[in-house]
Each structure stands twice: as structure tokens, then as C-alpha cells.
Amino acid sequence: MEANDGPSVDTPLDVLVTDRPLSQWNITHTPHDVGYVLLLSPDGRLSGESTAGVDGCVSDMLSAQRIVEAIMNAAQTRRPAAARPHLSQRELQVLISIADGLTHAQIARRLGISPHTVDTYVKRIRSKVGGGNKAHLVKVSFAMA
To answer: Which one has a higher pLDDT value, 43 or 2?
Structure first.
């Protein structure tokens, strides 16, 4: 696995534990496939880079037992798949980029696609999550897991 690659698992995940934001991944899972995303951070707080799609955070300074307890708790509180719209890998990348505050042109450059294609993905995302403006899409990105 390359340093910038995300998880490469063929089965849906109950809990995904990561030490970096989803926006830094080469995403292979969508929120439909993951029940709960738990971020490990030095201070145990959700801050800094985009936390879109992250459900909870725990300090990586805790004991292994405490981290396992947090994972077990996350598995019990995960959101049902029916509550999450199914977005394609590329739609999720676009949604995370919107939550990062990027313009359509910046997203296009980041993903190596045209701004028109970004517009198309945004229209598809809006149709799947119930429309809304950019603020609504950012809210949706934080609520998804």
C-alpha cells in the first residue's frame, strides 16, 4: 500500500480507524460502506484539516485498551446504512473537497478533471442528498459516515 492510499478492503467496514483525514486518502470506501469513522489525533479533538465524514475522535496517546474500548463503542453506535446516501468514490471526493472550502476550479485541478465534470458531480450529489446550497453540502459531509 502506498503512503497516500486509503484502505483496500473488499467488505463493508463497521468501524474505520484512521490517523489522517479522509480528504488525504485515495478513497476506496464510501460512507455507504463504512458504519463509523474514528479519527486518532494527538489531542483527541476534531479540528484542523477537513473532518468531513468523521464521526468521532480519540487521542492516540491513550492506552491500547482505551482505544479498543472507543472502537467497540463506535461499533455499537454506528449509523445504519439506510440513513446514508450512496455516493460514488468520485462524488465523495468532490463532496470532501467542497467541505475543504475549494472552488469548482480548484476541485477540478486537484482531481484532474474539468470544472464542468465537477459541476456534474455536484448536481448528482445534490440529487442524492436532497438538494441544497454549498453550506448544506458541507453539513451533509459532516453528517455522513
So the answer is: 43
* Full DSSP string of 95-137: HHHHHTT--HHHHHHHHTS-HHHHHHHHHHHHHHHT---HHHH
Give the chain's domains with CATH numbers: 16-80 (no CATH), 89-143 (1.10.10.10)
Whole-Å CA distances, 82 to 30, 35, 89, 133: 13, 11, 18, 23
Residues with Cβ within 8 Å of 43's Cβ and at least 6 positions away in sequence, in order, are 59
Q: pTM for the full model?
A: 0.46
Question: Across 4-13, 31-40, 74-83, 88-97, which has the greatest mean pLDDT?
Answer: 88-97
Which DSSP string corresponds to 7-47? ---SS-BS-EEESS-GGGSB----TTTBS-EEEEESSS---
